[in-house]
Design brief:
With 363 residues, this protein is α/β, with parallel strands linked by helices. Helices cover 37% and strands 17% of the residues. It has two domains: 122 residues, Aspartate Aminotransferase, domain 1; 217 residues, Aspartate Aminotransferase, domain 2. GO terms for molecular function: pyridoxal phosphate binding; transaminase activity. It holds the Pfam family Aminotran_1_2.
Length: 363
C-alpha cells in the first residue's frame, strides 16, 4: 500500500520540467540565465572540495551582508525550494497547524502536506488585488497554529505586501506563539527598491530566498534561510539529513556572483523593464482578460474572461508555439501566469502572439 508521503510529488514541477517548453516561452518565472562567461570566474578560483562545515565562511559573510543580518542568522541551502522545505521542517511537527495564503505556489502546499501539516488557508482575493488583509489571518489563526506562510512578491501575481501588513501579521502570530515564513525569492526583482528582508520585522519572522529568480543564477543553487540564531542552528543540523555536504564549486561561484551582483542585477532590470513595457503595449488593453498589473516582478497572473484556460493553452501552443502556465497550478483555473524574465525579443513576440490568440480564441 502506497502512503501519502511515498506518493508525494509536485504537479507543477512535473509540468514545468516536462511540458512547459515552447518556441515562445512565457511559462518561466525567473530572469533568463546569466552566462558564466560574464562572471570573472577562473578555473583556479574553483576547487572540488573545501572547508565547509555549517556554511562556507566567505559565502556566509556575503549572504549576511546582502541581507543586513549577522552570519549566525544565515543558513545556506540549495535554492529557495530546499530553503522552504528546511524552514518549514524546522518550525512545526507533523499534525501541527500551518496557515498559508490562497492562492499560492503549489510546491509550498505540497511540501507542507509532505511534512504532515494540518493546512488552513487565508485569502488573497483577486478582487482585492491579491492583497493580504490581516483580519483574515486573525480570523483563522488558533492556539494550535505554529507557522504562517506568505510569498512576497506574491507568487503568482507579483503583488507586493507592505512591511506594515507583514508587521501586523507578525504581531497576530506572536500572540499565538507562531512564526511567519516569508518567501522573498521574487522580492529581489525590486532591486534598489527592495525593502529589508522581513526578518528585520521581528524575531518570529524567518525568510527564504535565492539568486535564482531575479538574477538568472539558478544553476548555482545559492539559496538561504534567515532566522533567529537558535532556529538557524536547529535548521543547520536538520539539513545534515538532506544535504550534509554542499557543492563546493557552486559555493565558490556563488561568492563570485555575490561580489558582482550589481552587474548581474543591472542586466536583470533591463530585461524586466523592457518586458514590462511590452506587456503594457500588447496586453493592457485586451478586453478578453483582466489582470492586476503591479508593474514589477517577473510574472503577472491574468484572468481569462470566458472559456477554458486549458483549451486556450492548447490553442496557443498548437497555433502560436507559445507557452503560458495554466492557473490550475495556482488554485485559480480561470487564470494563467505569464513570465516576463525571458529574452526580450522572444518575450515581445510571445506576448504579440498571445494577444493575437486572445482575439481569435472562441470558447
Amino acid at each position: 500500500m502506497t502512503s501519502s508521503r511515498t506518493a508525494a510529488h509536485s504537479p507543477y514541477m512535473e509540468y514545468a520540467k516536462l511540458y512547459s517548453a515552447a518556441k515562445y516561452n512565457l511559462a518561466t518565472s525567473g530572469v533568463m540565465s546569466y552566462p558564466l562567461a560574464e562572471l570573472p570566474v577562473r578555473l583556479e578560483d574553483l576547487e572540488i572540495n573545501g572547508p565547509t562545515v555549517y556554511g562556507y565562511a566567505p559565502l556566509q559573510e556575503r549572504l549576511a551582508k546582502l541581507n543586513g543580518v549577522k552570519e549566525e542568522n544565515v543558513v545556506a541551502a540549495y535554492g529557495t525550494s530546499m530553503a522552504n522545505h528546511l524552514a518549514m521542517a524546522g518550525t512545526f511537527d507533523s499534525g501541527d497547524e500551518v496557515l498559508i495564503e490562497e492562492p499560492t505556489y503549489e510546491l509550498l502546499t505540497s511540501a507542507l502536506a509532505f511534512l504532515g501539516a494540518k493546512i488552513k488557508r487565508f485569502p488573497r482575493p483577486y478582487e482585492s488585488g491579491f492583497a493580504i488583509d490581516p483580519a483574515d489571518v486573525k480570523r483563522v489563526i488558533t492556539p494550535n497554529t505554529k507557522l504562517i506562510v506568505i510569498t512576497n512578491l506574491h507568487n503568482p501575481s507579483s503583488v507586493l505586501t507592505s512591511d506594515a501588513v507583514l508587521r501586523e501579521v507578525g504581531e497576530i502570530a506572536a500572540k499565538h506563539g507562531a512564526r511567519v515564513l516569508v518567501d522573498e525569492v521574487y522580492l529581489e526583482a525590486l532591486g534598489d527598491k527592495r525593502p529589508k528582508p522581513a526578518i528585520h520585522l521581528g524575531e518570529n519572522f524567518l525568510v527564504t530566498s535565492s539568486l535564482t529568480k531575479a538574477f538568472g543564477l539558478s544553476g548555482v543553487r545559492c539559496g538561504w534561510i534567515l532566522a533567529e540564531p537558535k532556529l538557524a542552528h536547529r535548521i543547520w543540523r536538520m539539513n545534515d539529513l538532506f544535504a550534509a555536504t554542499p557543492s563546493h564549486p557552486a559555493d565558490r561561484i556563488s561568492v563570485i556572483a555575490l561580489d558582482n551582483l550589481s552587474r548581474v542585477a543591472e542586466r536583470a532590470h533591463r530585461i524586466l523593464d523592457e518586458n514590462h513595457r511590452a506587456l503594457n503595449e500588447l496586453l493592457a488593453s485586451r478586453n478578453e482578460i483582466d489582470f492586476v498589473n503591479p508593474g514589477v516582478g517577473t510574472t503577472v497572473f491574468p484572468k481569462l474572461r470566458s472559456g477554458s484556460v486549458e483549451a486556450f493553452d492548447r490553442f496557443l501552443r498548437e497555433k502560436y508555439e507559445t507557452a503560458i502556465v495554466p492557473g490550475k497550478f495556482f488554485e485559480m483555473p480561470q487564470h494563467f501566469r505569464i513570465g516576463l524574465g525571458g529574452d526580450t525579443a522572444m518575450t515581445r513576440e510571445g506576448l504579440k502572439r498571445l494577444a493575437t490568440a486572445l482575439a481569435e480564441f472562441r470558447p
